[in-house]
Amino acid sequence: MRKFKSNKNIVFSCIFHVVWVTKYRKKYLGGDIEKRLKEICLEVSEELNFDIVEMECERDHIHLLIDVDPQFGVHKAVKRMKGRSSRVLRQEFAILRQRLPTLWTNSYFVCSVGGAPMSVIKQYVANQKERAAH
Question: DSSP string spanning 23-39?
Fold first, then answer.
């Protein structure tokens, strides 16, 4: 059953599937870089008060399920996660500075997940890494 949240004047459940990719689809999201990326995304979600329901990386992109206050907006959440992760990861990992002019492309994919059962969507996101291995 879906949980609802509230702020001062609305009750909501706005869950989005978000995907963004590395510049030139370079396959750098593994090991320590992947671990640090997930930490950064969680830090941003705590600071901005939205939930990451599920998160998984493939070598060249990241999938997230996020639950965002509609008054804040999914675009602000994505912009902050992409911006901070690009800056911090490029500071901490020299290979990213040397090989890419920027970590992420300017674009991203987002869709609401209101129609499908949450368990199916969570399973889909969680299984992305396994799917990529085949």
Answer: GGG----SHHHHHHHHH
In whole angstroms, give the CA distance from residue 19 to residue 21.
7
Find the helix or strand (DSSP H, E) in which 12 lies: strand 11-12
Please give the model's pTM, rounded to 2 decimal places. Answer: 0.85
DSSP label of 56: E
Going residue by residue through the chain, which has 134 residues, state the pLDDT in tens, using 9 for 90 and above.
467 888 888 888 889 999 999 999 999 999 999 999 999 999 999 999 999 999 999 999 999 999 999 999 999 999 999 999 999 999 999 999 999 999 999 999 999 987 667 788 788 888 877 666 65
What does each C-alpha distance from 41 to 54, 64, 65, 100, 114 come to in angstroms?
11, 10, 12, 20, 23
Rounded alpha-carbon distances, angstroms, from residue 129 to 56, 95, 119, 125: 7, 22, 17, 8
Assigned CATH for 10-133: 3.30.70.1290
User: How many Å apart are CA 33 and CA 61, to the nearest integer?
Assistant: 12
* Contact residues for 24 (Cβ-Cβ < 8 A; gap 6+): 100
